[in-house]
């Protein structure tokens, strides 16, 4: 997984660097909750977190899945 802000890489990490394996997280959560299609399991963030401001573009790339880019807008 990779995150870019305005084309500059801010974060890059694989699931192999996670504290708990994805399978363990799924087993834990599904012991208490039934996951439905469209549910999202958020697991935290790798190093590189930083501010974004209106006008920035944030793009996330997930190997084997695709990319999603969105502009940051102000309120």
TrEMBL record:
Protein name stated in the entry: Fumarylacetoacetase-like C-terminal domain-containing protein
UniProt KW DNA damage keyword? no
InterPro entries recorded for this chain?
Fumarylacetoacetase-like_C (IPR011234), Fumarylacetoacetase_C_sf (IPR036663)
What start and end residues bound the annotated signal peptide?
none
Q: Which UniProt keywords apply?
A: Metal-binding
Asked if the Swiss-Prot or TrEMBL record annotates the protein with the keyword NADP, the reply is: no
One annotated GO molecular function is: metal ion binding
Gene3D superfamilies recorded:
Fumarylacetoacetase-like, C-terminal domain
Q: Which residues form the Fumarylacetoacetase-like C-terminal domain?
A: 1-73
Superkingdom per UniProt: Bacteria
Q: Which PANTHER family match?
A: ACYLPYRUVASE, ACYLPYRUVASE FAHD1, MITOCHONDRIAL
């Amino acid at each position: 997984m990779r995150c870019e802000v305005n084309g500059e890489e801010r974060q890059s990490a694989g699931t192999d660097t996670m504290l708990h394996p994805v399978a363990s997280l799924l087993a834990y959560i599904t012991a208490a909750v039934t996951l439905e299609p469209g549910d999202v399991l958020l697991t935290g963030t790798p190093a590189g977190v930083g501010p974004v401001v209106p006008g920035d573009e944030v793009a996330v790339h997930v190997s084997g899945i695709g990319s999603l880019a969105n502009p940051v807008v102000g309120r």
